[in-house]
Fold this protein.
Amino acid sequence: MAMHENKSLSSVMVIFGGTGDLTHRKLMPALYNLVYDNLLPQNFAVAVVGRRSKTNDQYRDEVFESLKKFSRNKIDEGHWNKLRNLIYYVQFDFTDMSGYEKLKAQIAQLEQEYNIQSGRVFYLAVAPEYFETIVHGIHSSGLHRNGNYWSRLVIEKPFGKDLITAKKLNNKLLEVFEEKDIYRIDHYLGKEMIQNIMVLRFCNTVFESLWSNKYIDHIQISLCEKSGVGTRGGYYESSGAMRDMVQNHIVQILSLVAMEPPIDLKTDAIRTEKLKVIQAIDCFTPELLRDNVVFGQYGRGVVDGVPVPGYREEENVPKDSKTETFVAIKLHINNFRWAGTPFYIRTGKRLGADFSEIVVQFKPMPDILYFKEKYLQEPNLLVIRIQPNVGVFFQFNTRNFNTHNDIVSTKMEAGQINREAGNTPEAYERLIYDILRGDATLFSRWDEVEASWYFADRIIEYKDQKKFNFPNYDAGTMGPVKAFELLARDGRQWFNI
């Protein structure tokens, strides 16, 4: 059933940070493509808040230019006019509490004009220092009080800088919104192949029956980027790879890969099993931190044939910065399913390849029969490609029919992109669609955030206490030498498939 057929989903979506990069690159293209696919509620409007002075028409024209650059679907006049007429710009500074009364009047007008009788979505597409200020403004103006209808808060990462600040922020949010109405967004969880992890596992006996330490040698999760920090140096200095990628994206992916089957597919059942995984990550002692965590920072190098600066030469980055742009970690999940099976995770900027993938390597066959003498045994691999080439493949050994008796490794592959039908939906389309429907499955519950910060804080604290010799890898390579040694000492290697 298309979403627009359900009148109870009619709503006003309020976007704070309407002139920002996130809104123009992701949120507006997502809304356009939802219009294109006929998935928005029939009674719907968008109130966009920004500090710059603009008319509705000026702002709409800017959105149109952004859509031409970033939309996955071609812009046609009919669909664009439909979205254009739903967008209204409200100008005020987030710190000016009187502006929230102005916004309240605009929302009331839109609800009357578009016959919206269901709910409000408050999307905070702003820098984290404004989170508490905006929620306070929503509270003081009573914007969240919507009669018998729902109000939902959507908050982008980072959710705090550590466990202490995350708790403080969460307590402020809970003063205004209930936990069930807080949507902590992680765009990685909206990607098609991340959603497909549970389907691959729980709909295929061939995988789920082998999904344990008994049959799996190890699992790798890699989120690698060719790009540097660009103009985000100021933000990245307060973040680093641990806060920017590991604490949220990688921990969430890890929990989906390693979770137990939930009792059903309801939101809380899935979230509870994910939480158990995060809580079961083996505690990092000082010795384990020393031997199993690698930090890196990129220096000058060459990416795709183009010379690029080192991290310390980027805009708004100190010349002596100790911020990590690369992290590799070996960890264990201390439960019956995974005890003894290592998980290797890595993420970095300015690397030699641009990809995100999960690699599950199964244990080898005994060195008897075919592998007793001359045949080289290639491992069975299940590879889940998150981006850019979305899909999944399974590597196995078979007879080479072009020779008398050779054994070769071959792949069964299922791509998720149909070139004739166009690309798969972008992550933000899925997430906005779920927010409007009230489906919080792909969003983090507070106890998940709390547990992931507990894990990340131990590693960040260790990094801050040590003096690392940065930079320690050239841009365009695949990270520090120690990251390769991390696997080599176990007789393993990083995959880039």
User: Anything to note?
Assistant: Residues 446-465 form the longest helix (20 residues).
